[in-house]
Amino acid sequence: MILKLPSSFTGSFNYVDCGARGDLSNPLLSVFENSRYIGFDPGLTMPSIKEDSSVYFPVALAKETGLVDFYQTKNLNCSSIFIPNQGFLDRFMQVGEFFEITETLTLKAVALDDYLPAQGINNVDFVELDTQGSELGILQGARNLLSSGVLGVRVEVEFSTMYHDQPLFGDVDSYLRQFGFMLFDLERYHLRRKTAPVDGLSREQIVWGQALYFKDWENDLAASTKQSLCKLAVIASFYGFHSYALEIVEYLLGNDVKLLSSKEKDQLKEICNHGAPVQSLTLIDRIFGLYKRMFGSSKSSFHGMNEKSAIDSSDNSYFWKD
Predict the structure, then answer these.
(1) Structural domains of the chain in order of their starting residue, each with its CATH number
(2) What is the greatest pairwise CA distance in the chain?
(3) pLDDT in tens, 67-102
(4) First-to-last C-alpha distance (Å) of the chain
(5) How far does CA 209 lie from the centroid of its chain?
(6) What is the overall mean pLDDT for the chain?
(7) What are the pLDDT digits (tens) for 256-311?
(8) 3-class SS letters over 257-287
(9) Are 298 and 181 a contacting pair, CB within 8 Å?
(10) In degrees to the nearest 10, what's the CA dihedral of 99, 104, 105, 109?
(11) Distance between CA atoms of 190 and 9, rounded to whole angstroms?
């Protein structure tokens, strides 16, 4: 079960999707009462605002505002501001043709730190990026956001150069750690080489993945608020990291912690106990009893993930993830 808290605890929740490709939604938003989806993708011709306040900006993102070359590929989802590394990609089954360049465009790109405030959006809680190799540049253009309100990042990363001169996982990981983010999960995607034996009995190379980062709340307590900690707990629970969510809840319920009023602490205990009578919880109660009541025995992780892998296949004969 996923922890859900009323907006009186979490306030508003802003989710930014970089490389949205027409989604205009994400299951994560459903666990917050007051949430907003903010999508970026250069494929649109005009912004469209929905009745639920979600907004979609048809612009490319980069480290700095300016013009960029954009290489459109046979599979549009593989298009990038980086040139595909065709020689490397052609070594794998089926993949190479997806990345063949069909057209080169010049696009206006913006930096998140510049663009969002100009649109009246000053607070961001979660950022997701899937932009075919340009994720680090986009994050570098969001330094102010990352150092202030962003609590979680989900980012596509590469372990080999699918595009020429692109940053790799180590570069992204090192950058995010500067802002107090910790790596919590890494989905890994393997590609099958053309030389793979017919019987499939061969290990294959990890080429790209999806990395999930959360802020380390304990390292920035001076800047923590009731809303930020409660939102982080809900996000962690949504992705299946219930122990991290409970760690935050336990801190908020501490006798010496004044972020919540006595009434709010009682309310939080009731929520975690699913309406059971409020009682003074000992440490053992919290770890074993509260945890079991909040999250049950589920071992699930990555609840409701909306996979947006650029290269996908119904039979998954040439790639798989673990």
Answers:
(1) 7-223+314-321 (3.40.50.150), 242-295 (no CATH)
(2) 65
(3) 999 999 999 999 999 999 999 999 999 999 999 999
(4) 23
(5) 12
(6) 86
(7) 999 999 999 999 999 987 643 333 344 435 444 555 555 454 444 444 444 444 44
(8) CCCCCHHHHHHHHHHHCCCCCCCCCCHHHHH
(9) no
(10) 60
(11) 41
Is the separation of the CB atoms in 116 and 101 below 8 Å?
Answer: no
pLDDT digit string, tens, across residues 109-118: 999 999 999 9
Here the tokens at position 261 are 């009023």
Q: What is the pTM of this model?
A: 0.88
Structure tokens at 13: 């929740």
What lies within 8 Å, CB to CB, of 180 at 6+ separation is 215, 216, 219, 220
Structure tokens at 33: 């009462």
Residue 118 in contact with residue 111, Cβ under 8 Å?
A: no
Q: How far is CA 187 from CA 126, 127, 222, 302, in A?
A: 18, 17, 32, 10
H helices within 178-276, ranges in order? 226-238, 242-252, 262-272
Q: How far apart are CA 102 and CA 120, in angstroms?
A: 36
pLDDT tens figures, 199-221: 767 889 999 999 999 999 999 88
Asked whether 126 and 152 are in contact (CB, 8 A), the reply is yes
